[in-house]
Design goal:
Elements (H helix, E strand, L loop, with lengths): L15 E5 L5 H13 L15 E5 L11 H7 L1 E5 L6 E5 H7 L1 H10 L6 H7 L2 E3 L13 E2 L2
Parallel strand pairs: 1-2, 1-6, 2-5
Antiparallel strand pairs: 3-4
């Protein structure tokens, strides 16, 4: 009989990983980041257990988007938020959001690929996104991901 493996809290050693987003496609980048956060690249991966790593994303401002309408996707793709009040729907397109808050684009794409529950919110706290190459996590010595 095979016994299933469940990692103990002392066995989980999260690493810090550095991902350079310059020139990378938004969707492919987000799926790679989601897999790193979940820990799918580790042999001890267990669904529902936080065995993943911390991920630092730099150069978020310099991502690319592709598709059949990639030239117009920057102006046609919209992000919405609501204040909770009547008539409080705010919208912004991808180009303006990349200029103003480049981290929100990657956060929204990664959040769409994670579980939408308490576990997913816990994983999102391990994601650190910065618009340019500078980041305050040099003390953690993040390993560059190819």
């Amino acid at each position: 009989m095979y016994k299933s493996y469940y990692p103990k809290a002392a066995e989980i050693q999260p690493q810090w990983l550095l991902v350079d987003a310059a020139g990378q496609n938004l969707g492919r980048l987000a799926s790679r980041i989601a897999a790193l956060l979940l820990g799918k690249h580790k042999p001890t991966f267990t669904p529902g257990v936080g065995v993943g790593d911390y991920v630092v994303v730099i150069n978020a401002r310099h991502i690319t988007v592709t598709g059949t309408r990639s030239s117009t996707k920057l102006t046609e793709k919209m992000y919405y938020r609501h204040s909770g009040y009547p008539g409080g729907l705010k919208s912004i397109n991808l180009r303006d959001l990349l200029e103003k808050y480049p981290d929100r684009v990657i956060r929204a794409a990664v959040w769409g690929m994670l579980p939408h529950n308490k576990f997913g919110r816990q994983l999102m706290k391990r994601l650190k996104v910065y618009g340019e190459a500078e980041h305050p996590h040099t003390a953690q010595n993040p390993q560059k991901v190819a």
